[in-house]
Amino acid sequence: MKSKENTKEVFESPLKIRMKLAWRAFKENWKIFSESKIGVLGLWIVITFAIAGFVVYPILASTVWKPTLSGMTSYDPVTGYDFTTMNNPTPPSWHHLLGTDPLGRDVLAQLLYSTPREFALGILAALITVFIGTVIGTVSAYYGGVVDTFFMRLADLVLLFPFIPFLIVLSGMIQIDLLRLALIIGLISGFGGITIVLRSQAMVVKVKPFIESAKVSGASNPYIIVNHIIPNVMPLSFLYMMFNVTGAIFSEAVLSFFGLLNIRMSWGLMIYTADTAGYIVGGNIGHYWWLWLPPGAAITLLCGAFYFIGRGLDEVVNPRLRRR
Amino acid sequence: MRPVLEVKNLKMYYNTRAGIVKAADDISFTLAQGESMGLVGESGCGKTSVSMSIMRLLAENANIVNGNIYFKGKDIVKLNDEEINKIRWAGIAMIFQAAMNSLNPVYKVGDQIIEAILAHEPNVTFEESRARVAELYKLVGLDPKRMDNYPHEYSGGMKQRAIIAMSLSCNPDIIIADEPTTALDVIVQDMILKEMAKIQKKLNMSMIYISHDIAVIAEVAEKIAIMYAGKIVELSDAVTVFKKPAHPYTVGLMSSFPSIHGEKKKLVTIPGEPPNLLNAPDHCRFAPRCPFATKECWEKMPLYEEISPNHFVACFHPQNLRKQVSKDA
Amino acid sequence: MLKYIGKRLVQIFILLVVYVAVVFFLLHSMPGGIKAMLTTNPNLTPQARDSILHAFGLDQSLWVQFLTYLKNIFTLNLGVSFSFYPTPVWSIIAERLPRTIFLFATATLISFFIGFSSGKSLAWKRGKVSEYVATIIGVITYTVFTPLLIFVLIWFFGAYLGILPINQFLNPDLWVNTTFDAQTVFLYLLLTVSIVGAAILFSFIVAQKVSHRVKTKKIILYTSTAIASALSIFWWAISPYGIYGADIIWHMVLPVLSVAIISYAGTMLVMRDSMLETIKEDFITTARAKGLPDKVVRDKHAARTAMLPVITNFVLSMGFVVSGGLITESLFSWPGMGMTLLNATLAKDYPLASGALIFTGIFVLFAHLVVDIVYAFLDPRIRY
């Protein structure tokens, strides 16, 4: 009877075992991560924004903010207009919790409407960056030689590349929308600093005995890179993904703040609208605070939150930084 | 003769998140002018804590809770920061455990020595101090031309010699050498130890060698103190400690090191683990590992007593052991 | 040392060529290509158009075009601006680049100095209220959205307190009757600052050579700094430019403050972390054991060594600071490179925009080189 149970356990599916191992590793790492106050704070901010953008906005849009038959008040973030208010922008009121912008649109609706788009942009750009960075970093480390030298010098250049000025000039030549922006940011920063970091991590993994044994047992080079090296640099990639999300959201905010992007609505654009209409100049700034403070704070908080998560993950990934 | 250093009932505790660590617990010893003493014990037994207390280089969470350290009659424990800075290096100098990292990488080695001289002797000119460093370099067997090199241009042995030169730079009364040769290979180790002993004799300084390696200490120290779990368990002159060890731990320590000379003996390891200094027990701390432990040992702390002239032991059964050892032999 | 600098120079030069190539091929791949960009200006006469086409070799193959473009950049022939027709792009950049350099150099020095000393003190005395306050301020200024920060600064100093001018390079009312232009005064300012800076550097080197005691070194350094500053202030006071120079400086305060705050937090946080690592090192224990006063251990041994990662970090954060500077310039209507780049882009003035982009890159590479040389002076381990 007993032996039967044992065999049962032995023949548990490999996938299940892997899942169990992953779950255990996750729990351990979570414990370290949760000790870093700043990381947990970042996580909470991100969760709050995600709920606001992905849950609260759709609910509000389909209930309270639903277009009424009279058409007097519209909460559409781009085309909406409130005919009941006289002089736009109006300060916060029960009708418009964060007031209206110079064009009579509800600021809160704009804020919430933009949130999922910021997430999409940041995460898409970061995924592209991490994908390219991981592949190039590991390949450079594994093959070395000319490939390595080339990509490392390229990374030096990208590190110094005046990124925002470049995007500004580019936006004058082609129409940049959110997807294009994510692609451009992801592509360029993929060749930058992240490859240097991941390469040095891959160099450490490369000399480990299990790589040697995989080679001896006849594994091909691509197989070793994909199955042995990449999984071992993954934690670091994930860490850099967080910093890249920050960078992408920041870049988008700056560009749309200058009105250079071809998008319908974003936090940066909200400030741009207020700025070009003259509500942030000089003495107006304190008076019309609801025009710039909510989007500015949202950009700051979301950028900061991903950065905080990165700092928290740093303690998981770099044991050197761990407190005893 | 008045002792140059006298440590009396020194207690130095660390406050950690987990509790109080009694790193040095009731330590007493004296050191005479020109005498060399060895402080031996396993790592983590509090040797470095004792030396750091003497220099008053304490970590933020470390406190001297009791005791006195008299240096030429002045109590180091009670001095303020300015007064202690005057004693450091000019009175008591130190050779550190990690020679590799004891020199600042961004300054020339010679300048780091000169810095110490100028800090303590304001009347010495820069040229005079350079001349003195050159002398010291010759004394420790370094080329004076290397003064103007940076630490990364030195080899490990050279750095160690430079640090010895640095420790001599202000003519201190005492030098504390904390594992002075652990980072070096055996041949260089031996050479440097011999030279240190020679210089010590020549300049008639007092010296405290700290090591986990009793063989190293045996070569250079006249007097040996054995530390276990934050306490000195045995203290006497080197000959007595080697010929007539009275504490079971000393015996254990000695039989766990190979000897090149003399008959072949089986190396014996001390059973059990070194004690945790966190929340240390109130009974004899060696009892859990001691083959001779009796009920008494598990109940009380043995007193640190002079069992014969200049032979101090903290054990309830020193005589028993003596018999046991002679029986074995 | 010279060998090291030479090596870095060559590397930076190669990076520069690659950078120009990247910009060139990107411009080329845009709709219409470079040809359209340089010549779609309604003001351009047919002759002028032909001469531009010829100067840029736009009737030749791609490689020849690239080489010509490269040659044109090194001979500073960047075409003619559309929006400032017929001013050549180079003369616009030559006017504005020094302003940006001045803004950056001042702000960087200030933020480095403050970030360095506050990071140092925070790490040295831990667990105080000031540590939490400074860390929170540091993290906030590090993550804050730059325009938001500048709005707050403008509101506080310009509107609420009303003590500082909030935009432009100078006060036009004051300059109505002057016979000289602002650029001349500005260049004189730049010259004064460089002379004072050089004097301080020189006296620092002299002090190092002459004396070996900290006190005399300090006396030499402070007296010469005081003399140089007093002399330059005296010169400005008696010269006819005095009040105008003051006007320019007055208008620079807020932009400098903004850029300094943007780059301050990074320096402070890195310095603090680096210092915390350094004070665990054995050589710090050695220094304390030598009986050196607390301050000497902190400044001469700990901070001096902990500074090195801060300088490395400065290179890595340069992109961030440059974009911060661009935002600052445009929000204060302060006519430097950043504002030129932005306005040229908005006005579809392609020659000026691409020229400004190239010179922004050259500026960054040059700053990188300067930092590298400073680093080599500070860290003896890399002077191989």
Brief account:
The complex is a heterotrimer of chains A (324), B (329) and C (384). Chain B is an alpha/beta fold.
Write the layout of secondary structure elements.
The complex is a heterotrimer of chains A (324), B (329) and C (384).
Chain A lengths: L1 H9 L3 H22 L1 H26 L44 H37 L1 H16 L2 H11 L4 H13 L2 H14 L2 H8 L4 H37 L9 H10 L7 H4 L1 H29 L7
Helix pairs in contact in A: 2-13, 3-4, 3-13, 4-5, 4-7, 4-8, 4-10, 5-8, 7-10, 8-10, 9-10, 10-11, 10-13, 11-13
Chain B lengths: L4 E12 L2 E13 L4 E5 L6 H9 L6 E10 L2 E2 L5 H7 L4 E4 L13 H12 L5 H15 L15 H13 L5 E5 L7 H18 L2 E6 L2 H7 L2 E6 L2 E7 H6 L4 H8 L49 E4 L2 E3 L4 H11 L1
Parallel strand pairs in B: 3-8, 3-9, 6-7, 7-8
Antiparallel strand pairs in B: 1-2, 1-4, 4-5, 9-10, 10-12, 11-12
Helix pairs in contact in B: 3-4, 3-5, 4-5, 5-6
Chain C lengths: L1 H27 L4 H7 L6 H10 L6 H13 L14 H36 L4 H15 L2 H15 L11 H4 L6 H29 L3 H25 L3 H37 L3 H8 L4 H23 L1 H14 L5 H10 L3 H29 L6
Helix pairs in contact in C: 1-16, 5-9, 5-11, 5-16, 6-11, 9-10, 11-13, 11-14, 12-13, 13-16, 14-15, 15-16
Verbal overview:
- The complex is a heterotrimer of chains A (324), B (329) and C (384).
- By secondary structure, chain A is an all-alpha fold.
- Chain A has 13 helices and no strands.
- The longest helix of chain A is centred in the middle third of the chain and has 37 residues.
- Chain C has 384 residues and is an all-alpha fold.
- In chain C, helix 12 runs antiparallel to helix 13.
- Chain C is globular.
- Chain C starts with a helix and ends in a 6-residue tail after the last helix.
Q: Output the structural class of chain C.
A: mainly alpha
Q: Helix content range of the residues of chain B, please?
A: 25-40%
- Main sheet characteristics of chain C: none
Distance, first to last CA of chain B = 39 Å
Mean pLDDT of chain C: 82
Q: SS-based structural class of chain B?
A: alpha/beta
Distance between the termini of chain C: 7 Å
* Low-pLDDT ranges of chain C: none
Strands ordered across the widest β-sheet of chain B? 6-7-8-3-9-10-12-11
Roughly how much helix do the residues of chain C carry, as a percent range? over 70%
Q: Provide the β-strand percentage band of chain C.
A: under 5%
Low-confidence stretches of chain B: none
Instruction: Determine the strand fraction of chain B and express it as a percent band.
Output: 15-25%
- Distinct helical segment count of chain C: 16
* Mean residue pLDDT of chain B: 84
Oligomeric state:
heterotrimer
Shape of chain C: globular
Largest interface: A-C, 42 and 53 residues
Order of helical and strand elements of chain B: EEEHEEHEHHHEHEHEEHHEEH
